[in-house]
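User: I'm writing a short methods note and want a consistent example. For Calcium binding protein 1, I'll paste the sequence; you return only the structure tokens, no commentary, since I'll be parsing the reply automatically.
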Amino acid sequence: MLAIGQPDLLATQEFDRFDVDLDGNIEPTEVQQYFRRYDTNGDNEISRQEYRQEVESHHIHNQEVQRVLLRFFDEIDFNNDGVLDQSDFNKFFANADANKNNLVNENEFTTYFHQLTGGPVVGPAVG
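Assistant:
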């Protein structure tokens, strides 16, 4: 169930998956690292299946959480070709970077993540 204004661990956990050095900001190099981690076959695209497998590898078996994360996948597939490539991630980063300082802080990420997915997930996320 989604509800605006409820605590949302999912956005925080996804932010932390991007923020490799845990400095509170996502940098372009961290977006590239995230992309490479999810591109398990190395073809420079992330298929829906690769994304789903990576989500499940984080022990995310909650159906609602999976649904939100797959919606995230669909929403950042900006050219609607069914796969994510580096240009999709670059656009995601540019859109999330509200103050255009070439860094995405947790607030910017969470705000944009919620815009894409329809709001916070109620209850604990896992992973």
